[in-house]
Amino acid sequence: MPEYELLSDYPLLAHNTFGFDVRAKYAVRLTEEAQIASLARDERVKNAARLVLGGGSNVVLTQDFDGLALLMELRGRHVIREDADAVYVEAGAGENWHEFVAWTLSQGLPGLENLALIPGTVGAAPIQNIGAYGLEMGERFDTLRAVELSTGDMREFDSNACAFGYRDSFFKREGRGRFVIVSVTFRLPKKWVPRAEYADIARVLENGSSDSPQAIFDAVVAVRQAKLPDWRVLGNAGSFFKNPVIGAAEFSALKAREPDLVSYKQPDGQFKLAAGWLIDRCGWKGRSIGAAAVHDRQALVLVNRGGASGAQILELADTIKRDVYARFAVELETEPVCL
Question: Is 90 annotated in the active site?
Fold first, then answer.
C-alpha cells in the first residue's frame, strides 16, 4: 500500500484563496495516483466525506470540514503524442495552471495563452471549464483520467463524458464528490489562430505588440493584473458570478429599459449579459458588508478584506443577487462551489 500521512485537525487557511481560517477533520497530501486507491480501502476514513483541494481558488468554505481533505500535489507535464493536426500535452492535476500555460508556450506549443493567470490547478480547470477572453478550456481538451473515490478505480473521460457547459461540467454536478481528477490531456492545434478580439486585449496589442502567442499571453496577464486583485494580497475566488444568459425576447425588453446594457449575442440567438455591469449599476462596486466586500475595480469579484467568514461572503452575494433581480429581473448564479 502506498504510504501517506493522515493529518488530523488540519488547517485549510493556506488551501483556499479567500483565506478562510477553517479546518478539516482529516487531510492527506496526494503525490501519487496509487494513494487515492489506497484511501478507498483505508478503514480510518473509508466513510468520510471527501473534499478535493488544488489551489482552492474556486471554493467558499463556510465552516470546518468534517471529513477528509484531499490536497492535490500530483505533478508532471509532458508531450505524449502528436498527429497531423495537433500536439497532445498531459499535465498532473496538481500542476499550477498559469505555470503550465507558460510552459506550453516555452515548448513552442500555443493554444492556451488566452487562459493565462487564471488561478488554480490543472485538475480544477475541467471542473469549472475555465474560460477567458474568447476561449474556453473545453476547446483545447482531449481527455482526463480520474479515480472513483468509492472504489479506487481509474477511469478515462473524453469531452462528451465531461459534459462541458458554461463554467460547468459533469464533475460540478453528477460527478461532484465521486471522482478526483489526476491528470488532464490537452489538444493543442498545430495551425495556430490568434484570439485577440476582446477589446481589452486588442487595446494592449495595438500599443506596439504583435499578435504572437507570447504577445497575447503577456496582454492577458497585463489586463488581468490591472483589473483583478491578487488573492495573496486580498482574498478572493476570482469572478464570483456567472454572466447570465437570457432569451432574445427577454433581452429586447430589458434593452428597451436599459439602452446601454452590455451584452454579447450567442450563436444560438440568446444573449450573454455582463454580470459585473449589472452589479455595478446596482451600486455595489466597492461596497461591503463588514469585511466582505465587492472589489472597487471589478464588481464581479467579492473579496475578503480581512477576517471575513465564508458565511459573510455568501450573505453579501445573496444581497447582491436580490438587488440585481429587483432591478433587472435577471438571476445571478455563483461560480464557486460553496461548502
Answer: no
Catalytic residue of the set 33, 95, 139, 335: 335
pLDDT score of 77 more than 80 = yes
Task: Give the model confidence (pLDDT) of 131-168 as tens digits.
Answer: 999 899 999 999 999 999 989 999 999 999 999 998 89
Choosing from 50, 167, 187, 195, the catalytic residue is: 167
* DSSP string for residues in 70-116: EEE----EEEEEE-SSEEEEEEETTSBHHHHHHHHHHTT--S-GGGT
CA atoms within 13 A on the CB side of 208: 0
Question: Among residues 32, 27, 34, 33, which one has the least CA distance to residue 50?
Answer: 27
Domains of the chain, first to last: 7-72 (3.30.43.10), 77-189 (3.30.465.10), 235-338 (3.90.78.10)
Neighbour-count burial of 97, counting CB atoms closer than 10 A to its CB (0-12 exposed, 13-18 middle, 19+ buried):
buried
pLDDT for 208 equals: 59
Contact 155, 178 (CB under 8 A): no
Residue found by looking up cell 494513494 in the block: 35
Residues 6+ apart with CB under 8 A from 64: 22, 23, 24, 25
Specify whether 206 is catalytic: no
Grid coordinates of 181? 481528477
In angstroms, the CA 17 to CA 59 distance is 8
232 tagged catalytic: no
Q: How long a stretch of residues is the chain?
A: 339
Confidence of residue 211 (pLDDT cuts 50, 70, 90): confident
The residue annotated as part of the active site, out of 57, 169, 183, 239, is 239
Name the pLDDT band for 128 (thresholds 50, 70, 90).
very high
pLDDT for position 1? 53
Q: Looking up cell 466513510, which residue turns up?
A: 47
How high is the pLDDT of residue 209?
Answer: 58
- Three-state DSSP at 165 gives strand
